[in-house]
Structure formats: C-alpha cells, structure tokens
C-alpha cells in the first residue's frame, strides 16, 4: 500500500473513526485503524465489535493495499504533522513509512488478517431522515440516557417510527426526554440504540443538514449511512419502558416563562446548592411570579422572574442539573412548565410547537 494524502484530510478521517476504538479491548488489533487503499480512495475503519465507524476519502493511491496502525499513535502523529502532503507506504520489512516534509516515521503494523469485518446490513428496511432533524433529536434527548448499566436497556435511546412520525426517547428513571419530528412515509420501526452510538452519529453530522441520510435496520444492528461515512452499531435487546404511560395527560398549574431568563436564574441558584442535596433548587409560584431559591452552609440565593401563570400557586423543588440540561437544548425563546402537584413530575415543553417534551421528577421536600 502506498498513498499520498493531504494532512488535514487524513486527520479528519482519523478523528471521524477514532471513537470506534475501545479502550478496554482484549484484542490488540482493535486498538488499530484499518486502512484500505483502492481505486484512488482510502477507506478508514474502527470498531470495538459493538460500534463500527467507516469513512472514505478520495486521494492519490500509488499502490493498492491494506494496513492497520495503532489508532492513538496515528492520530497523535498526524495531528502534529505540518499541513502538507503525507506519504504512507508499506516497506519490504512490513513496517509503515510515514513522511511529511522533513518528518519521517516507521510504524509497526498489526496483522490485517486479524481485523474483524463489519456486520453487513441489507437494504431491505430503510428510513430516510433529514440530517439536521436527526442531529437535533439526538442533542435534545441523549443527555437523559441512563448511566446505570444494571438497566442496560435504558443506556440507549428509543427510535420509533409510526407512519410519518419519528420519535426519539431517552430516560434514566429521574427524567424523560421526548423529541418528535415528521418524515416521509416509512415502515414502522421500534429499536433501542446505544447512547454512545447516537452521540457519535450526532458528532459526525456537521454539514449538509438539509440533506437526507439513510438508516438501515436488521433485528440486531442499525446502520447510519451518511454517504462517505457510515456508522454501524448493535441494537440493545429488551423491552423499552412504555413511555406514553408515564406522560401525564392533565395538569393543575401552567407557567410560561422566558427560557433564557429561567436558565440563567437556575444556573445562579445552583451555585449554592449542595452536591449532597441533589443540587436542590426550590420553586415558589404565586401572583404571576416565579421565585427560585437555594441555600447551603455558604449562604442563600433568591431569584425572581415574571411569568404567565394559569392555575393555583405551588411550591416544588428539583435537581437543578436536570432542569439546566433541558433548558440548554430547547431552541425556542419561551417554555411552558406544567405541574399537577409538588410530588408529581413536572413537564417542560416549548410554547411554539409540541415537538419536544421533557418530564422531570421533583425532589420531595421534608414538609411535603
């Protein structure tokens, strides 16, 4: 194998697939990036056997072939090289020679025969989704996936297609994030995708947001086809929680408020919230005012925001982080809070549309 490639192009390809590398693999070859040069294109692959990322670039191929190089080392070397042309070739002794201007490296290659092939996903079950919509859905939900691997199914996000409605759901037992969108007609599907996979797909989608990408399904795998880049992942097995049964269908108090004002007030109030006290912030809703307070051994804080209030007065408390996470990803200027009681979940939605719903459990106060 012998190629010549622009340093920036090479680095982007390496960083794209890098997150497919596992830091805990028992197979040394999986610490490497597989590179295949053919027909003036180079394909880069990284996998941990659960998640695989593949990207292809067009470049000068002098001699076709394959090599597997240590991903961490290749990334660090390429990042430090001058922004010029990089030559890579396999020498007679099997080592890989890398040259860029006056810099030269000889690297040991892994045995390419040991590198596993990525699973094949047939194109018989396909959904087409605008890239920007999928990226937005990922950003607005995956922060709520569970980190508790004892409930493995909740470490992923539910992707559900019903007629023309696409839904993505994540929940961890304390909050639930639901984002809906409209797509062209597709077969109905319901799969649970690991949170890591969704985050990587969201990271890779950084351009052509108006164009569509394809999602291909099997019973055990999902493939995100972004053209030159593909992400393939195992699906999580098991039954996802029936989230529709969790969402309340009525409320007693409704509050409309500026998203930015609320976010900044909660961020300031949380500065004094104890970590051991669930970063507790208290809400007091009365007379079209929202009072936000928190206290610790270091002092107290009080914030007050004008609101549009419908319904009764209410006192309720929340983990500040759970509120901040949602308010940061909502794009609209105004949000609506819906409450039933001070021990029932609160609902946050945008006032402009019904595409986003966020449910969060309150913290029970001692006098409740």
Automatic annotation (TrEMBL):
Start and end residues of each DNA polymerase III beta sliding clamp central domain: 129-240
A single MF term (Gene Ontology): DNA-directed DNA polymerase activity
GO annotations of cellular component type: cytoplasm; DNA polymerase III complex
Classification via CDD domains: beta_clamp
Start and end residues of each DNA polymerase III beta sliding clamp C-terminal domain: 244-364
Single GO biological process annotation from the record: DNA strand elongation involved in DNA replication
Subcellular location(s) of the protein: Cytoplasm
Main subcellular localisation: cytoplasm
This protein's UniProt keywords: Cytoplasm, DNA replication, DNA-binding, DNA-directed DNA polymerase, Nucleotidyltransferase, Transferase
Keyword Lipid biosynthesis: no
Pfam families for the chain: DNA_pol3_beta (PF00712), DNA_pol3_beta_2 (PF02767), DNA_pol3_beta_3 (PF02768)
Domain (DNA polymerase III beta sliding clamp N-terminal): residue spans on this chain: 1-119
Family in the record: Belongs to the beta sliding clamp family.
Subunit structure: Forms a ring-shaped head-to-tail homodimer around DNA.
Protein name in UniProt: Beta sliding clamp
Source organism (scientific name): Isachenkonia alkalipeptolytica
């Amino acid at each position: 194998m012998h190629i010549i490639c622009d340093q920036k192009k090479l680095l982007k390809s390496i960083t794209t697939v890098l997150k497919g590398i596992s830091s805990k693999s028992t197979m040394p070859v999986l610490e490497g990036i597989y590179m295949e040069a053919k027909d003036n294109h180079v394909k880069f692959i990284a996998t941990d056997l659960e998640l695989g990322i593949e990207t292809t670039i067009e470049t000068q191929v002098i001699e076709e072939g394959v090599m597997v190089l240590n991903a961490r080392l290749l990334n660090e070397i390429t990042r430090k090289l001058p922004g010029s042309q990089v030559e890579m070739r396999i020498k007679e002794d099997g080592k890989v020679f890398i040259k860029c201007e006056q810099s030269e490296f000889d690297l040991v290659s892994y045995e390419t025969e040991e590198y596993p092939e990525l699973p094949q996903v047939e194109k018989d079950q396909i959904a087409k989704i605008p890239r920007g919509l999928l990226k937005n859905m990922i950003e607005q939900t995956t922060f709520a996936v569970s980190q508790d691997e004892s409930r493995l199914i909740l470490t992923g996000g539910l992707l559900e297609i019903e007629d023309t409605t696409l839904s993505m759901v994540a929940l961890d037992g304390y909050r639930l994030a639901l984002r809906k969108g409209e797509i062209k007609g597709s077969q109905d599907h319901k799969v649970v995708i690991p949170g890591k996979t969704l985050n990587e797909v969201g990271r890779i989608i950084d351009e052509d947001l108006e164009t569509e990408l394809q999602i291909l399904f099997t019973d055990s795998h999902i493939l995100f086809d972004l053209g030159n880049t593909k992400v393939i992942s195992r699906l999580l097995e098991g039954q996802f929680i029936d989230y529709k049964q969790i969402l309340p269908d009525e409320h007693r108090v409704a509050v409309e408020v500026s998203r930015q004002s609320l976010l900044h007030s909660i961020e300031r109030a949380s500065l004094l919230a104890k970590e051991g006290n669930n970063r507790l912030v208290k809400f007091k809703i009365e007379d079209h005012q929202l009072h936000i307070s928190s206290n610790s051994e270091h002092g107290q804080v009080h914030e007050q925001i004008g609101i549009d209030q419908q319904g009764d007065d209410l006192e309720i408390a929340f983990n500040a982080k759970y509120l901040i996470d949602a308010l940061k990803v909502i794009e609209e200027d105004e949000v609506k809070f819906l409450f039933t009681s001070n021990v029932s979940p609160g609902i946050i939605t945008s006032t402009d549309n019904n595409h986003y719903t966020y449910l969060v459990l309150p913290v029970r106060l001692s006098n409740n």
